[in-house]
Amino acid sequence: MIGREMIKLSKLLLPLIMAFAMVGCTSLSNKPIYNDQGYAVTGYDVVAYFTENKAVKGSTEFQAEYQGSQWLFASKEHLAQFKQSPERYVPQYGGYCAYAMSSGFVVSSDPLAFTVFDDKLYLNYSLSVRENWLENRDKFIEEADAYWLKKTNK
Question: The whole model's pTM is what?
């Protein structure tokens, strides 16, 4: 009797659990750069991650368009650096969560959950996800690189 009740309960809860799991997931469709609030990297200055090793909010006073997205910067110097070599500063996997990408999922990211490694910017869904990602970073990067190629070469 209890076994049947558990099966019935699990059949009711499974769709709910799946719905919660998919809340953070999205599709690339025509959005190879993660945009939130109308700006790439939620309006954070991608050059600052490299020059200051911290997340710095950009200003609408200093902005550029690249790959169909608006990018904000904290200073005209950072804007100029980006314009000179945008591919150097664009986050890996278009700014989507690096940890999720290693499993083939396209998930939003938190600009505060960043890592600069090998002169590349990686973002993760949250600080706790970033900590998990860092534990096996090299493996996750290799897996995410493969999934990113599949997702962007369709």
Answer: 0.81
